[in-house]
Amino acid sequence: MNVFSMQSLVRAAFPLALSLAAACASTPPPVEKPKPVIEAPKVEERPTDSFGAGNEAFAARQFDKALAMYDSFLQKDPKHSQARFNRALALNELGRYDEAESAYEQLVGDDPKSSEAVINLGAVYKNKGEIDRGIKIYETYLKDDPFDSRVLNNLVALYREKKDYGKAIQAVRKLLMRDKNNIDAYKNLALVYFDQKKFKLTQTILENAQSMAKTAGIKDPDISVNMGLLYLATGDNGRAMAAFKDAISLSPMHPLANYNIAALALAHRDYDLAVKGFKVAAEKWPNDFEVIASLGFAYQGLGNLAEAEKLLRKALEMKKDENVMLQLAVVLQMAERADDAILMFKELIMLKGMTCGPDDMDGLCGRLKGVELMKQMASKPAEPEEKPKATGDVDKIFNQPEGGAEPSEGAAPAEGTPAEGAAPAEGAAPVQPATP
User: Fold this and answer.
1) How distant is the alpha carbon of residue 184 from its chain centre?
2) pTM for this structure?
3) Which of 225-229, 305-309, 341-345 has the lowest mean pLDDT?
């Protein structure tokens, strides 16, 4: 079958707040949204129709093109269930959730026993924040097929989202009664205990899932990612990095593993590694505020001011965030664009409800005054050279050391003017995004 199905919600990693150093992402990585997998990959090298061309575009993550191809195909065959399903999935990937919801509801209406359509419809509800609707559609489906493992696992994820841990554990137990080797069930159970800060129990369950996967010959990078996030929660950043790298060895483009490696790299000012990891995450989540802001911070650390400005401005279009505004102002200052930096500092000061008096030389007011002073100094005409008035003065001039007079001892940049190539300011970290 040339049909895509959406990845189960159990693959979402822990919504964990990272407690890392300054300039590092101090909030959770974006929770991975359900993503497509191909049940039987049959992407043709030379597709013979628009349906095949749509699948090829989908595999290349060209979702707009895929949608256009599916629409073209459905004009000729409007009842084609596979094309309708893939079209709905393309809409979901494009973030057009209302249209995806309508498309999946039609599919479920035509075939209420289609677990793939039911799972994906529930995932769309989750993406829209309508958790109760997702729970209801899963519970309704399970009345006719009470042991469907994929639907049960997704139901557990939604119970967890509601913090209804009792029902979540009951659903996992029901699943394990029928299939004691269900790795996804153990992963979900670990998530439930993690949310309750029962870290030792979480680790035991994850290690059990890891052992089961190894025995079954299954390479599951998500277990390693979740283990890494568990280590972060307990303050063991070294083992966390090792776990994320293990996930990368299994899946080099894993977005969550790359994101967390980048976050740790940013904390240690390894900006090259940070850029590399955040770029992978940005490919998966091009419109996620935290990912885009973090990538901007990493480019700022590298001194790539043009790229940093572009990304920080994009992040601000998503959300007016004080940290991002501050770093954008610093980037503009470093780029010697005083007028733009002044405007950004003033906008930030206004957003914070502050006013700057003539004697306010600390904090943002001090930074603003520092940039204004730099602008004044840059626009001030140079002092004309003093001509010698007597022969003795000429001798003094020619006897000066090469390069002119030595600077006064202890001279330093004006307050609020960072040195060239300065790292992002203390506390410059993305703000926690809404968890889907």
Assistant:
1) 24
2) 0.73
3) 341-345
